[in-house]
Each structure stands twice: as C-alpha cells, then as structure tokens.
C-alpha cells in the first residue's frame, strides 16, 4: 500500500538527510522520511535575516581535516571563519574596572593549554574535565612567571573558562564532563570556527542531496519527506516494523532509521518502542548526557564594537562583588554570560550563548528583557553608554518538544556506567539477527558526538548497513558486477 516502504526514516535533520541521500544514490528509492516539525533541518535551523540567513542551531563547521563536511564540500564552498582561534582577546571586568591585560593573557594562555592542548594527558585521566582543569591550572600557576598575578584574577579566569566549556558543551558544570571520553574522541585539525557566511548552515543539505555543485546530480530526498508527522510508536516483529504517528496514520517498513534527538529519545523511549528496548540501550539512553544551550542575536543600527578583523568579542570576567550583587535579582541569569561575539557575514550583529538549564526562566523572558539586561552588562563592563539593539532573536531549544535541548555529551555518568554512543547506535535485531531498527543522529556517533559532522556520518553508516542487508546492496553489487564485466569486455575487444 501507499504507506508500506522499504525504509522509514524518522527525522529530517542532517542524519536523516544523509541516510536518505546514500540510500537513493544506491538505488533504494522506496523510502519515506517522517518529520514531526513543519520544517526540515532539525537542529540545523537557518532563518532568513536581512540579505541572508542566520543560524539558530548549528553555526560552525568545527575542524577541517577529519571533518567530513569540510572534507567533502570545501572544494565547492568558500567557508568564512569567525576567527576565535587567532583573535586578540581583551578582557573586561563586569564592573568596568580595568584589568592588567598582560596578566589576563598569561592566564588565558595557561587555561587554553590545559583545556585544549593536553588531550594526550587527559585521555589517561579518570576524572572530569573540571577536576583535570583545576589540577593542572593550579599546578601551572605555581610557575615563577605568575608570581605577580593576583589569585583573584586567576580565579576569575578559571570561572570564565568554566563558563566557556559549559557553553561549548551545553553543560551546567564541567565536573559533569568525562575528560577521558572527550579526549578519546576523534581528532580534527584546522580552524574550529568555519561558517557558511550568509548562506546559513542549511546549505549543507544542498551538498548532501548533490543539488550543489551540479544540480543534474540531484538526489531527490525532499520529495520523500512528510512534514508534521510526529512518530509516537514503533512496533517491530520478525519481518516488519509498524510506525504510528500522532495524527493516526500508520506506516510499515522493512527497516527503520530513528534519528530523533537524544533528548526526545530519553523523554519518550518507553512509549516509543514496542517491545521495550534492551536494558543496555536503556542504560546508554539514561547515562549519556544531553545539553541545553540557548543563543541570542542582538542587532544594532550601527556597530559600536571595533572593526579590526582580529577583534572577535567582548570578553567579560565577573567580579565577585558583582556576582554577589546580581545573585537573587532578576538579572541573575546574566551570570551565565561571559562573551558577546561578532557574527561572520553580519556586521551589525552581536551574539551570546546561555546554558539554558541554569536559567530556567530564560524561555519566558521577552526579547526586550533579554536586550535590556545584556545592554546593562555591556555598558557596565565597557563603562560607556551604548545604542539600544533594534532587533533581538532568541532560541527556545529546551522547550521545543521535538528537540528538548541542544546536543549530547559524554558525561561522568556515561563513563561510570561504561556505556557509549556505540550502545545507542546498536540496531534492534529480529530473531534471525536481521537488523530492523537502526539508530542514527549526533548522539550515536562516537568519534564526533554532538556535532553535525558526527550526525552526518551516522546517517551514512545506518544507510550503508541497510544496503549491506538489503536488495539495494545487491543492486549496487549487480551494478558493479555489470561494470566489471563491461570493463573486461571492452579490454577483450581492444585485445
Ligand atoms: C544551539 C545549537 C548550536 C549548535 N552548534 C553547533 C555547531 O556550531 N556546530 C556543530 O557541528 N553542531 C552544532 N550543534 C549540534 C548540531 O546541530 C546537531 O549535532 C545536529 O544538527 C543533529 O542532527 P541530527 O540529525 O542528529 O538531529 P536533528 O537535527 O535533531 O534531527 C532529528 C529530527 O527528528 C525530528 N523528530 C524529533 N522527534 C520526532 C518524532 N517523534 N517523530 C518524527 N520526527 C521527530 C526533529 O524534528 C528533527 O528534525 C548545535 C546545536 C544547537 C541546538
């Protein structure tokens, strides 16, 4: 029937897209993608803005060599770079008291060395990112060269890097992040902050479907997508899976690729799967972390920040007096903010990140309150009056029911329970050990958990497994066999 398919993919984010593209490319056309939202892209969410698109979700291609997105598409796309890796950093104190920039630079260098250049040491460390940092940062401070640096400033710098790590991973504390597992992840080299300039991250879908660079190669993933299809249950037996949607529709499939976010899986795994999932998978679902990151964009009629290309952000170190003064007030949420940074391709925008879980009310805040509070902090730190933003954009990832947060994280609980993304990726098999349900998405890919490139690779992996087990593979195999025969036939003709 119309709703009977070889493959049903749940979710039209980057992992669902890449799984579908790989299947179509290999001759498996009988697929449908069920997407709960009324849009595609998932946590890649580029929204129109002025002459281009800004990204409410994924914004940067992190790394060059080792990043499948950069490696595949950089020949055809001229990536921008926000420049965090090679910027000049100037530190402001929250109360506007000027700081010794030699001291802040020395401390910042030490902190970066401990956090980002010590993976060979970190991979043998059983504790958290936080305890690793405290141990080796404190040790570094014992060096003679820090003799004149005030301890209070060293502590402020530690607090800044704690916040920075949390905003990078969407965590509430770096003591929740497993140093060892994070350090054991795949390595990428090159710039960490490449952007899609004004085109937005959504451009990646044009490359995945091969609309770019050559439209004649287009793999028609889009016509397979059905929007507003929230999957509520997947029941699987020996041969088939039956997929039920909230609107009452039902689909049957030989194979299912489940790509909904780790937050969705964690919230609904009990009702989503019949029969219940294996214990080990449940252990992984419950103990792999899931972050909660929110973003804002402030637009100004005229930029008031430096136009020097090496300037990337206002970096704020909170003073203890300000922390005490703001705590308990309706501005307390600002304590989660340490930087307002420029947005590549949009000279009139400043952006900031917040760890949503720390600021439960964030999603109820009006744009006006967010803007007013941010301007209060900027004016206080810079000691000057500044123009008002003319526009505010903000995200609500935590409460959006098809995401329930930002991205997954290999936490101390993950380490303690001995589970990993491999356990999440493990398919569900029938009694003949034929896989029926595959799991893809950023949380399932060990090497680059949390990132778009990990999500993309996971989609390809699931599709390749389906191809290996299905006619699609035989088709591919037959195709190659015919090519080999033709090749030898042409040789013998020449001979
Ligand atoms: C604020 C933020 C900033 C980020 N920044 C970066 C960055 O700079 N660089 C980077 O590499 N990564 C970044 N990420 C992470 C990146 O966006 C994700 O890793 C990646 O997009 C996840 O893709 P996915 O296919 O695994 O999941 P998703 O994109 O979440 O796709 C899953 C799809 O499933 C749908 N779905 C959910 N439940 C159901 C259901 N019941 N039925 C049907 N469909 C359902 C969802 O609507 C969604 O479209 C960021 C994420 C966020 C939130």
Model description:
The protein has 2 domains: 4-44 and 202-289 and 403-475, FAD/NAD(P)-binding domain (3-Layer(bba) Sandwich); 84-187 and 293-394, Alpha-Beta Complex (Polyamine Oxidase, Chain A, domain 2), CATH 3.90.660. The chain has helices at 14-25, 68-73, 101-116, 119-122, 129-141, 151-169, 179-184, 203-208, 262-272, 279-287, 320-326, 367-382, 412-416, 421-425, 452-469, 471-494; strands spanning 4-10, 31-34, 46-49, 52-55, 80-81, 91-93, 194-195, 225-226, 231-236, 241-245, 250-258, 273-274, 289-290, 293-299, 313-317, 339-343, 346-355, 391-394, 408-409, 428-429, 435-439. The strands form 5 sheets. Strands 1, 2, 8, 9, 10, 11, 12, 20 and 21 form a 9-stranded mixed sheet that branches. Residues 472-495 have low confidence and may be disordered. It has 16 helices and 21 strands. The chain is globular and about 75 Å long. The relative contact order is 0.18. The longest helix has 24 residues, at 471-494. Strand 16 and strand 17 form a beta hairpin. With 495 residues, it is an alpha/beta fold. The structure holds flavin-adenine dinucleotide. Flavin-adenine dinucleotide binds at residues 10-16, 34-37, 42-44, 57-60, 62, 229-231, 259-261, 264, 293, 295, 395, 397, 402-403, 406-407, 441-442, 450-452, 455.
Overall 3D form: globular
User: At the first level of CATH, what is the class of the largest domain?
Assistant: Alpha Beta
Per DSSP, what share of the residues sits in E-state strands of 2 or more residues?
15-25%
Number of helices, where a helix is a run of at least 4 consecutive DSSP H or I residues: 16
Radius of gyration: 25 Å
């Amino acid at each position: 029937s119309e709703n009977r398919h070889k493959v049903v993919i749940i979710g039209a984010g980057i992992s669902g897209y890449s799984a579908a593209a790989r299947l179509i490319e290999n001759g498996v056309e009988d697929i449908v993608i069920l997407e709960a939202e009324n849009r595609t892209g998932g946590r890649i969410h580029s929204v129109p803005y002025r002459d281009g698109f800004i990204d409410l979700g994924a914004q940067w291609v992190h790394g060059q060599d080792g990043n499948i997105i950069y490696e595949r598409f950089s020949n055809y796309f001229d990536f921008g770079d926000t420049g965090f890796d090679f910027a000049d950093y100037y530190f402001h104190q929250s109360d506007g008291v000027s700081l010794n920039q030699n001291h802040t630079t020395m401390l910042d260098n030490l902190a970066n060395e401990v956090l980002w250049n010590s993976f060979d040491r970190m991979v043998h460390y059983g504790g958290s990112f936080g305890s690793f940092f405290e141990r080796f940062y404190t040790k570094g401070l014992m060096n003679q060269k820090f003799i004149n640096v005030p301890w209070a400033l060293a502590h402020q710098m530690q607090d800044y890097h704690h916040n920075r790590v949390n905003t990078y991973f969407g965590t509430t504390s770096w003591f929740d992040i497993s140093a060892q597992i994070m350090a054991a992840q795949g390595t990428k080299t090159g710039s960490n902050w490449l952007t899609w300039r004004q085109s937005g991250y959504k451009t990646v879908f044009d490359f995945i479907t091969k609309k770019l660079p050559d439209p004649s190669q287009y793999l028609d993933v889009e016509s397979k997508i059905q929007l507003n299809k929230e999957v509520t249950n997947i029941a699987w037996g020996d041969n088939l899976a039956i997929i039920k949607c909230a609107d009452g529709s039902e689909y049957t499939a030989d194979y299912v690729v489940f790509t909904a976010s780790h937050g969705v899986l964690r919230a609904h795994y009990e009702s989503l799967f019949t029969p219940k999932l294996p214990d080990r998978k449940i252990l992984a679902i419950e103990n792999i972390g899931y972050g909660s990151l929110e973003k804002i964009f402030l637009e100004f009629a005229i930029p008031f920040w430096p136009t020097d290309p090496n300037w990337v952000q206002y970096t704020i170190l909170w003073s203890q007096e300000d922390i005490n003064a703001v705590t308990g007030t309706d501005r307390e949420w600002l304590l989660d903010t340490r930087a307002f940074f420029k947005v590549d391709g949009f000279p009139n925008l400043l952006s900031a990140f917040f760890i949503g879980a720390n600021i439960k009310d964030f999603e109820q805040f009006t744009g006006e309150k967010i803007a007013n509070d941010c301007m209060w902090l900027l004016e206080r730190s810079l000691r000057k009056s500044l123009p008002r933003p003319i526009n505010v954009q903000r995200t609500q990832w935590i409460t959006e029911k098809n995401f329930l947060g930002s991205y997954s994280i290999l936490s101390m609980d993950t380490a303690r329970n001995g589970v990993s993304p491999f356990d999440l990726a493990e398919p569900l098999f029938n009694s003949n050990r034929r896989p029926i349900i595959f799991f893809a998405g950023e949380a399932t890919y060990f090497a680059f958990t949390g990132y778009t490139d990990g999500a993309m690779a996971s989609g390809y992996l699931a599709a390749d497994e389906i191809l290996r087990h299905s006619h699609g593979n035989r088709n591919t195999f037959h195709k190659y066999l015919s090519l080999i025969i033709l090749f030898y036939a042409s040789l013998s003709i020449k001979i």
